[in-house]
């Protein structure tokens, strides 16, 4: 389009068009799904419509079925999105696929025609229940980095504490056992030295007695 505008002499319009922000990889992939994975997109839109009808009629079983179909359609779209990302040399990371799924899921309820035609202008926020029922949704805001986990779940913390206590008890028992073994070895060594000294004394006495006998003879 930029080349065509320049050829027609509309240089200012060509510059404005060229300066337009390029879509994110996630948005580009989502917009390609209507063309490259039309059946999967239609399945997602159909599930969204069933979800609305089940909610309106209070059909709990229908609601569960619609949500199951929606999950299956989103999983199928994630596979198609990964292939599209690889086609343009992008890595199909979990973050990228999640953003594609969020946008497609929300658009399936709020703007299914744009999803089919691949004309979505922005990524969309993850669809809450209101969005699933077709209310207007806001474009995605930049996602802040995930905050570090402040505390562990009580059950997990308790298991780790018990494991640490058991380890400490085991090491303390091993230390006491080693101490007892060292003490026993020390006592054995002292007893051996005492026996050796006693044997030396007896040997010396026997030698003296033998010498005395030689003198008498």
Would you give an account of this structure?
This protein is mostly helical. It folds into two domains: 131 residues, no CATH class; 65 residues. Helices cover 76% and strands 0% of the residues. It contains nine helices and no strands. Helix 3 crosses helix 5. It is elongated, with a radius of gyration of 41 Å.
Topology:
Layout: H1 2-7, H2 11-19, H3 25-36, H4 38-57, H5 60-87, H6 94-110, H7 112-117, H8 129-132, H9 154-216
Helix pairs in contact: 3-4, 3-5, 3-6, 4-5, 4-6, 5-6
Category from helices, strands and their pairing: mainly alpha
The tally of domains stands at 2
Average pLDDT, rounded to a whole number, is 79
What is the ordering of alpha helices and beta strands?
HHHHHHHHH
Helix content: over 70%
The number of helical elements comes to 9
Gross morphology is elongated
| Major sheet size, sense and barrel closure | none
**Number of beta-strand segments:** 0
Strand content: under 5%
User: Distance N terminus to C terminus?
Assistant: 135 Å
- Point out poorly predicted stretches: 134-138, 140-152
Radius of gyration: 41 Å
Quick gist of this model?
The protein has 217 residues and is mainly α.
Attribute tags:
217 residues; 2 domains; 76% helix; elongated; mainly alpha
